[in-house]
Write a structure and sequence with these properties.
6-stranded antiparallel beta sheet; alpha+beta; disordered N terminus; globular
């Protein structure tokens, strides 16, 4: 019993220290067991690479998109954690493929910053056929919502109808 407690204590100490330590063998050997090995310590100057700092335009676009999404959250929609920043220009729509589940309701929200004057969001099935959706447009804020009947891939299209090349933020809500 004492031997098991000793082995357990030894292994627990090794796990807490972060190093790997060989457990004592059940029978003594003539050769000494190898010294514990540990991973080399990270260099104090090697810091993990930080996330890129968002630009002012990206921050404004995301804040604007969250403003619209907040209105949907009043109706029980949850805002998905992720978001995307993309550049857009008039007559150069962006297409984003998403996988959706039947039985859920979704709102896809896009908001531009700076020179973007008017955006539009539309939805398509995997074959490129438009799906019936509710839409919302307010200058550089736009959204489209629907509830898919079939789970699978769908396409979100974001168009800049007026303005100059700009950045926009896309996020979505679901319930």
């Amino acid at each position: 019993m004492n031997r098991q407690r000793l082995i357990f204590t030894f292994l627990a100490a090794a796990a807490l220290s972060g190093g790997s330590v060989a457990a004592p063998s059940p029978t003594p050997t003539a050769a000494p067991s190898p010294a514990p090995t540990t991973a080399p310590a990270a260099s104090p100057t090697a810091a993990p690479s930080p996330l890129p700092t968002p630009t002012d335009a990206q921050v404004k676009a995301r804040a604007s998109a969250l403003e619209v999404a907040g209105a949907f959250s009043n109706d029980g929609f949850k805002i998905r954690d992720g978001h995307a920043f993309l550049s857009i220009a008039p007559k150069a729509p962006k297409f984003i493929q998403v996988n959706l589940s039947s039985g859920n309701q979704y709102w896809f929200i896009a908001a531009g910053a700076g020179p973007a004057k008017r955006l539009a969001v539309s939805l398509y099935d995997e074959t490129g056929k438009p799906v019936p959706a509710e839409t919302y447009e307010n200058n550089a804020q736009a959204a489209a919502g629907f509830s898919p009947q079939i789970s699978g891939p769908y396409i979100v299209r974001v168009d800049e109808l007026e303005g100059e090349p700009a950045v926009f933020c896309l996020l979505y809500s679901y319930k």
